[in-house]
Amino acid sequence: LEAAIGGIVVAMGAIVEDRGAEGRLAIRLTPSLDDPSQRSLEVTQTSVMVPAYALARFFDEQCTDHPAGRVGALHLAAAQRIARVHRARLSVNAIESGGCTVTFAVKTSG
Length: 110
Description:
The chain contains three helices and four strands; from the N terminus they run H-E-E-H-H-E-E.
């Protein structure tokens, strides 16, 4: 799980790295209100608008023009595989004002 989380942070950092002070990530860990045994990690960047086609292929290591670059795409594909093994949920959603949020939700017990 640590590799998945690290990969998500590295990839999202790659998206914003050329933005200077504007290129920031927000990382939030929250418990689920519906299921106390579930935690969600959200990594948000608001600096770069990610096109819809890139969001659709966000976890695809074969995406040649991935906004996180080739290495970032590999990190995200690995995170998706790790999520599947642990029966976790990994998703990306666009933010209306620009940017995107990657959410990694996993049961911590039970």
